[in-house]
């Protein structure tokens, strides 16, 4: 009879032959907490020894190797995607370049303040604030590839949308697909199609951020940037958007009046 120490206990009977690779064969149980031992003689008792660490004979399981490979691929894809997004930080908004603004904001600057707007805005019935923040962060993400296409470029709306959809698809492929890529695509399309209350609000933030930036550039550079205010007038869809735009326009009126004195 085999002798067991406090670190061992008898294993339950096995109803199938125990396969061994050598005089001392080993197997892991499902929990990997026990090592089953037996001698090559059929009469020997099989015992289960509690192990402090999972055993390895130097060969990784296919499942384990697959997980490592998948994790490595995911990390690499994430960094590739983030590197591509760097262009959003360095690409300047073309509307301001066309106005001769020195050192204008980047695409990322614009999206960041929109996300802040979503964060601080008052509650709106039926609107998911977190979704608005995410939508603000991704709504111009395709511009990392296509750049900032403005009305002055003469590109038809349908063609602009086609280019941006293709760019978004490319970026999601760089990310490696999966749930996060699907979420980015869903948010982008929802915004593009103005298909929800969240999209209505974020569309308003897009215009509010633009006219607020125009107000700031007018003050900093002594310019009159009427076109940005004219192009957005009457196009706000939500009460928050309308009230914020009204406040910005009131401040602009006061600012222009003081400049003329």
TrEMBL record:
EC number, UniProt record: 3.1.3.89
Query: What SMART domains does this protein's entry cite?
Result: HDc
Protein name, UniProt field:
5'-deoxynucleotidase
Binding partners and assembly: Homodimer.
Give any Pfam family that matches: HD_3
Name the residues that span the membrane: none
- Assigned protein family: Belongs to the HDDC2 family.
Q: What is the lineage of its organism?
A: Eukaryota, Viridiplantae, Streptophyta, Embryophyta, Tracheophyta
Q: Which reaction does it catalyse?
A: a 2'-deoxyribonucleoside 5'-phosphate + H2O = a 2'-deoxyribonucleoside + phosphate
Q: What does this protein do?
A: Catalyzes the dephosphorylation of the nucleoside 5'-monophosphates deoxyadenosine monophosphate (dAMP), deoxycytidine monophosphate (dCMP), deoxyguanosine monophosphate (dGMP) and deoxythymidine monophosphate (dTMP).
**Domain called HD: residue spans:** 107-211
* PANTHER family per record: 5'-DEOXYNUCLEOTIDASE, 5'-DEOXYNUCLEOTIDASE HDDC2
What SUPFAM superfamilies does UniProt report for this protein, alphabetically? HD-domain/PDEase-like
Q: Specify the domain of life of the species encoding this protein.
A: Eukaryota
Tell me which cofactor or cofactors this protein depends on. Answer: Co(2+); Mn(2+)
Q: What class of enzyme is it?
A: hydrolase
């Amino acid at each position: 009879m085999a002798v067991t120490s406090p670190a061992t206990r008898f294993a339950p009977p096995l109803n199938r032959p125990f396969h061994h690779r050598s005089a001392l064969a080993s197997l892991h149980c499902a929990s990997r907490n026990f090592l089953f031992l037996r001698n090559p003689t059929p009469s020997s008792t099989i015992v289960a020894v509690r192990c402090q660490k999972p055993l390895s004979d130097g060969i990784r399981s296919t499942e384990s190797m697959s997980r490592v490979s998948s994790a490595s691929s995911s990390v690499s894809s994430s960094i590739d995607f983030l590197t591509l997004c760097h262009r959003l930080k360095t690409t300047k908004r073309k509307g301001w370049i066309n106005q001769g603004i020195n050192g204008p904001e980047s695409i990322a600057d614009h999206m960041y303040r929109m996300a802040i707007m979503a964060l601080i805005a008052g509650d709106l019935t039926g609107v998911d604030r977190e979704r608005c923040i995410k939508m603000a962060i991704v709504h111009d993400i395709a511009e990392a590839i296509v750049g900032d296409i403005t009305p002055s470029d003469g590109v038809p709306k349908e063609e602009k949308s086609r280019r941006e959809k293709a760019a978004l698809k490319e970026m999601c492929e760089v990310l490696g697909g999966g749930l996060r890529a699907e979420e980015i695509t869903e948010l982008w399309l929802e915004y593009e199609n103005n298909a929800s209350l969240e999209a209505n609000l974020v569309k308003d933030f897009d215009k509010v951020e633009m006219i607020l930036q125009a107000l700031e550039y007018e003050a900093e550079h002594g310019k009159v940037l009427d076109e940005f205010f004219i192009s957005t007038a009457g196009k706000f869809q939500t009460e928050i958007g309308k009230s914020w735009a009204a406040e910005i326009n009131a401040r602009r009126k006061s600012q222009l009046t003081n400049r003329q004195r």
